[in-house]
Amino acid sequence: MRVVDIPVKDVNELVQTVFSGLFPLVIEEVADEGEQIVVRARTPTEAAVCPVCGAPSGRVHGYQLRTVADVPVDDRRVVVRVRVRRLVCPTRGCRHTFREQVPGVLERYQRRTARLTRQVKAVVKELAGRAGARLLAILAAGLSRHTALRTLLRIPLPTGRVPRVIGVDDFALRRRHRYATVVIDAETHARIDVLPDRTADTLEAWLRERPGIEVVCRDGSATYAEAIRRALPDAVQVGDRWHLWHNLCEAALSEVKAHSTCWATVLDAPLYTGPRAQTTLERWHQVHDLLDKGVGLLECARRLQLALNTVKRYARADRPERMLRVPKCRVGLVDPYREHLRKRRTEDPAAPVQHLFEEIKTLGFTGCLNLLHKYINQGRADAERSHVSPRRRLARMLLTRPDNLKAEQHELLARLTGVCPKMTQVAASIRGFAPLLKPHADNADALTHWIAQVRAADLPHLHAFTRGLDRDLDAVVAGLTLPYSNGPTEGVHTKTKRIARQIHGRAGFALLRHRILLG
User: Fold this and answer.
1) Cα–Cα–Cα angle for 115, 64, 119, nearest 5°?
2) Are residues 103 and 21 in the same domain?
3) Looking at the structure, do residues 305 and 374 belong to the same domain, yes or no?
4) Distance from C-alpha of 202 to C-alpha of 208, rounded to nearest angstrom
5) Residues 422, 489: one domain?
6) 35 and 72 both lie in a single domain
7) Which of 99, 110, 236, 370 is 20 to 30 A from 325, comparing alpha carbons?
8) Are 64 and 86 in contact (CB under 8 A)?
9) pLDDT level of residue 396 (50, 70, 90 thresholds)
10) d(Cα 265, Cα 262) in Å, to the nearest integer?
11) From CA 314, how far away is CA 57, in angstroms rounded?
12) What domain range is 58 assigned to?
């Protein structure tokens, strides 16, 4: 061990630079012990305050040596050995003696200085246990993962006033099994609380304790809606605009799918043929024959041994061709070798599939033989071109902002929607609803007019969408007229997923809640 003797004047300069956080102490010596730097110091001679009665005292009962860790210097640990005084309390009947503390440097029962504790908290707040311990070891402030977790859980959670506007949404603790609820301030985006489940009773109990809430942003959950109505009957519920648009997208996709016989000719997309299409047509005639005889939908399902929803789908189609669909084929591993397969099958129609498999395998094909069998049996090898989900392509053009479409897409969209009056109505309905997503006071009347127009058209899937709007009309109107939304809550979910991946599902709900609320 090599001891470096430093004059008092130089020590003061060193404290003001490297050891500025130890400035309240009187540093007597700094020793270089190789792997660590040892700082020997003492407390000042001023009177200290009794922690019980608050009376100052300068009468020394004895001395004790206290060892704490400080922030590393030059990638080496810094150990501070401080001589602290045990003082006698002057108040009669109070505790006999007490050990002095140095606020901002030495805290009671701590083995680290206050500034090192702040650094450790900053690391474990982001990385928690194992990862935080590994990083702190690199920073020469090593501690165990258990100590890292204890330090994290000792960080006080933010407490503030009851917000006026909150956002509520659920997230998965274990997908399809366990869910929790997060509550945030919809104006400042600060986390407020995390509830252990997503039941109405839990949220209702939480809301009853905070009667100052005036506006609640949520998605279409009926459970949350019921809890808010019971706990805060005067609060305004705001439906999320993103979910409204998402539901409209699903309804529009179903309408596009139902009218595939109309636009398939424009896209040159073949419909299903063969035994599957023949079975579909036969079932349509069977269902409509029974309906014409006055048989109910449930009885039709029982007689034909079909699901009730399947019978409803057949009953909605006014002609059998409406039940045929465009194949939903996506780009697969065989598509790059389609031209080779077409050429070989043209030259030799009886070429065994096994031989074709060996040929494209030498060209770089990485799939299996069954995949090639399926590709050929679907007729995709002999088609003029592969059709990559054309109904989704059409739905995407319908739902895209017109300013973002290219000229050829505008032309194609006009041709697709012009071949069928109902497709024209679908396009008009989407264009009429999109401006409502920008909050405005006049959107309430515009929404009522839009619903009436949609119901006047023969669009069953959009009718189902409007029925969903009616079930939660007040929240929908609030979402289209007020500037609040549930978007910030969805952003918290994104960060929650990062935290969940980071702890690999090993942590319990208490630790996950703590990290979410710390942000």
Assistant:
1) 10
2) yes
3) no
4) 10
5) no
6) yes
7) 370
8) yes
9) confident
10) 7
11) 92
12) 2-111
> Using 50, 70 and 90 to split pLDDT, how confident is the model at 451?
very high
Distance between CA 65 and CA 42 in Å, rounded?
9
- Determine the Cα–Cα distance for residues 192 and 459; give it in Å rounded to an integer: 43
Residue with tokens 């319990």: 508
Contacts of 431 (CB under 8 A, 6+ apart): 402
Q: Are residues 103 and 182 in the same domain?
A: no
pLDDT tens digits, 96-147: 888 888 887 888 888 888 888 888 888 888 888 888 889 888 888 888 888 8
Rounded to whole angstroms, how far apart are CA atoms 196 and 512? 11
**Largest Cα–Cα separation, the chain:** 112
463 part of a folded domain: yes
264 or 512, which is more confident: 512
> What CA–CA distance (Å, rounded) separates 85 from 58?
9
Nearest by Cα to 151 from 177, 133, 164, 166: 133
Identify the residue whose tokens are 């699901």: 307
CA distance linking residue 207 with residue 231, whole number of Å: 6
Task: Tell me: pLDDT of 388 over 50.
Answer: no
pLDDT surpasses 90 at 449: yes
d(CA 59, CA 323): 96
User: At which of 70, 92, 111 does a domain end?
Assistant: 111
Which residue do the tokens 């059709």 mark? 387
Mean pLDDT lowest among 50-64, 262-276, 294-308, 429-443: 262-276
462/512 same-domain check: no
Q: What is the pLDDT of residue 502?
A: 79
3-state secondary structure 154-177: HCCCCCCCCCCEEEEEEEEEECCC
- Give the domain-ending residue among 386, 402, 423: 386
What's this model's pTM, rounded to 2 decimal places? 0.68
Spatial CA neighbour of 262 closest among 417, 409, 396? 417
* 27 and 54 part of one domain: yes
Question: Does residue 157 form part of some domain?
Answer: no
Task: Indicate whether 105 and 12 sit together in one domain.
Answer: yes
Scanning 307-442, the segments in alpha helix (DSSP H) are 308-316, 338-347, 353-362, 369-377, 390-399, 407-418, 421-433
Q: Is residue 27 part of a domain?
A: yes
Q: What CATH number does the domain containing 185 carry?
A: 3.30.420.10
